[in-house]
Design goal:
The chain has helices at about 45-60, 80-95, 180-185, 190-205, 245-250, 290-300, 320-330, 340-350, 350-360, 450-460, 505-535, 545-550, 550-555, 560-585, 585-610, 645-670, and strands at about 1-5, 35-40, 75-80, 100-105, 115-120, 135, 140-145, 150-155, 160-165, 170, 220-230, 275-285, 300-305, 335-340, 370, 390-400, 415, 420-425, 430-435, 440-445, 470, 475-480, 615-625, 625-635. By secondary structure, it is an alpha/beta fold. The N and C termini lie far apart (about 75 Å).
């Protein structure tokens, strides 16, 4: 990656982690290395940025502030487009790097005012501030574009935002500020600048995977099933979920300029993105009784917080002011919520009924795959008849006309699982989120689910991890950092609600890169199984050289061993080529090498299967003090044994072991009593 206007050099190596199943080790043989090139920005760019910011601050009306800032520390709000328009033009003209990070340090404004950037035009709701919190996008000092560049303004701010409890990941005075002391000792800026650069590498340039996609699909359908309790639900009372706009959003590549696909960086724009279609269908609770049954089985209630004032619900957020927030925005002695995990359980259990009642296609359980059929309705078979790989990602949106708050686990409007997305929308008043900005609680509208719904779909359908999460080798766990959570980030509440018109480059790139990593992960898993199976072969013979070499035990022919070794060498080469292509954003080339690698792994599996057919299994039985047991050993006879004979012998051995174990257990029980 390259840095414009500032940056640093470094090298980072870490494993990618698939966190879909925490009880397994999902580390991949993938290491990420960063190479930096530091250049100075053109003098004209620096002067133009300073002049544009100075004009924007001077043109601000009176004491206009960001709406978030405290009275004693007010900052003038200026649109981020003031600086971004100039940087975008420079990036289009000059950048040839994989990524570019602009580090700006404009001169102090002539008026001496502080300023921060706002991002409400990116889709955040333009709500007003009050004594408790604020609705809208949190101001910041940086911006991550839809093209492959980002910029940081060291003169802006300082701003603070992050979790409401101020814990891990809070961005408070985390970016360095250039002072007069740095003019005498400029080297003192190196460490904080490298820290910001490292954080950009972790969260933007090479983000971790939320989960590896299960397969490569030709077409993905995001099927939104909107379950309403009254006709038309909240369609006329709440912001509309635009399926067409979401389809355009998910099909747009990082750096794309227009519909013809000319790349913003001038290089290869080949894409691995499958065709994604978002559909929105309304069903009533009467037409989908199983949907209503699943929801009501997941409906829970909790008592108000013990420390909350009388007449409040409490427990709505995290922090010392939760009683005040709850008192202003909710009342009652208890609150209802939906258990997300239990709702998913019942939706999976009622999947067949839901398909029958709504006549919707939800795909195969777990994967959502839809098999290609011919005109007669039969599944296509045969090696030459390629099957189109289609899948459906079900999204269950419970659109309820109720004024009481109803959230998942008391905090979330949408939850992403590996096989589905669940969301809920109500007409409840504004509620506090678990984030804070400039010392005030971030508020959200329960009736607007567009932003959380988009974020949940990104996680489920494409395996994109939230921007504020990354994997730490030193902590051996997931860590949080909300520095890049403002702007047009699709995750979290700091970037505001509303629909997203564009996705930042790190999200759009991850949608394609994760597909490549998922294909490599599947090939590595299959290859590991082959190696373990070969290693476990138990050979009976006198030739020590053959007995100590698993491959020679299985493949006595030199021709078979040559093909076997050659396939493994090609697998390693194609893995390297796939990762190198993905690093240069040639995602189509990367997927070609990854899928070709999978074909070689399949060929290795075929070689092992052919060789195993020439092995004759023999059974050796023995008895010990705890009943009978048997094990299977292999030897290579003059001719292959019959598979039916081997199967019958194995069944006989298992049955004999079961009888022996049962007899031993009866004897043991009789001795005890």
């Amino acid at each position: 990656g390259g840095g414009g206007g500032g940056g640093g050099g470094g090298r980072d190596r870490r494993d990618r982690r698939d966190r879909d199943h925490h009880d397994h080790n999902h580390s991949l043989p993938i290491a990420t290395s960063f190479y930096f090139h530091v250049t100075k920005a053109p003098k004209t760019l620096a002067s133009d940025v300073h002049a544009a910011i100075d004009r924007a601050v001077a043109s601000a009306k009176g004491a206009k502030t960001t709406g978030w800032s405290r009275a004693h520390d007010a900052m003038v709000a200026i649109p981020h487009a003031v600086a971004d328009a100039l940087i975008r033009a420079d990036h289009a003209r000059a950048s040839a790097a994989a990524f570019t990070l602009y580090v700006m340090n404009p001169r102090t404004l002539s008026s001496g005012k502080l300023y921060a950037y706002t991002y409400d035009e990116e889709g955040g709701a333009d709500g007003g501030a009050d004594d408790v919190g604020n609705v809208g996008a949190c101001p910041g000092q940086l911006y991550v574009a839809d093209r492959r560049y980002a910029w940081i303004d060291l003169t802006a701010g300082p701003t603070s935002y992050g979790p409401a409890d101020g814990g891990e990941g809070a961005a408070w005075m985390t970016l360095p500020r250039v002072t007069e002391a740095h003019r005498a000792r400029p080297a003192a800026l190196v460490v904080p600048l490298l820290g910001a650069l490292r954080r950009a590498c972790d969260h933007l340039f090479a983000p971790a995977l939320d989960r590896a996609p299960s397969a490569q699909w030709d077409e993905t359908e995001i099927a939104i099933l909107r379950v309403t309790d009254v006709p038309n639900g909240n369609a006329d009372r709440a912001p509309r979920v635009d399926a067409d706009a979401m389809t355009r959003l998910f099909n747009r590549r990082a750096g794309a300029r227009d519909r013809e696909g000319r790349g913003a960086e001038g290089g290869s724009t080949a894409s691995t993105k499958t065709k994604t279609t978002v559909t929105d269908r309304e069903v009533s609770v009467g037409d989908c009784a199983s949907c209503a049954a699943a929801m009501y089985r997941a409906l829970k209630a909790s008592a108000r917080h013990a420390g909350a004032p009388s007449g409040t619900t409490g427990g709505f957020g995290i922090g010392d002011d939760r009683g005040t927030v709850a008192a202003k925005y909710a009342s009652g002695r208890h609150r209802e919520f939906l258990d997300a995990a239990e709702l998913r359980y019942w939706l999976r259990a009622f999947r067949g009924r839901i398909e029958a009642e709504t006549r919707a296609t939800l795909g195969a359980p777990g994967s959502g795959e839809i098999l290609e059929t011919d005109k007669s309705g039969r599944l296509r078979r045969g090696e030459n008849a390629r099957r189109r790989r289609r899948r459906v990602v079900p999204v269950f949106l419970f659109d309820l006309v109720r004024s009481e708050p109803l959230l998942f686990d008391g905090a979330r409007r949408a939850v992403a699982f590996s096989d589905m997305v669940v969301a809920v929308r109500t007409l409840a008043p504004t509620l506090p989120a678990s984030s804070s900005c400039e010392g005030k609680r971030v508020l959200f509208e329960p009736s607007d689910v567009r932003a959380p719904l988009t974020a949940a779909i990104l996680r489920t359908a494409f395996g994109v991890a939230p921007t504020h999460l990354t994997w730490s080798e030193s902590a051996n766990d997931v860590v949080r950092d909300y520095l890049f959570g403002v702007g047009n980030d699709p995750f979290g509440d700091l970037s505001g609600g509303g629909a997203r018109r564009t996705l930042p480059f790190h999200v759009a790139d991850a949608m394609e890169r994760n597909a490549v990593f998922g294909s490599i992960a599947r090939s590595v898993r299959d290859a590991t199984r082959v190696l373990r199976a070969v290693e476990k072969l138990r050979w009976r013979g006198d030739d020590r050289e053959v007995r100590d070499d698993p491959e020679r035990r299985l493949l006595p022919s030199a021709r078979d061993r040559d093909e076997y070794d050659a396939r493994w060498a090609v697998v390693g080469y194609k893995r390297t080529r796939a990762l190198a292509s993905a690093a240069m954003h040639a995602h189509a080339d990367a997927m070609y090498h990854a899928e070709s690698m999978a074909r070689d792994v399949e060929a290795i599996v075929a070689i092992v299967k052919r060789a195993s057919e020439k092995l004759e299994p023999t059974l050796e039985c023995f008895e010990d003090a705890q009943g009978g047991a048997s094990f299977l050993s292999l030897r290579r006879p003059g001719r292959a044994a019959s598979a039916a004979v081997a199967l019958a012998a194995a069944a006989w051995a298992l049955n004999r072991a079961r009888i022996r174990a049962a007899a031993w257990w009866e004897v043991k029980i009789s001795k005890q009593f």
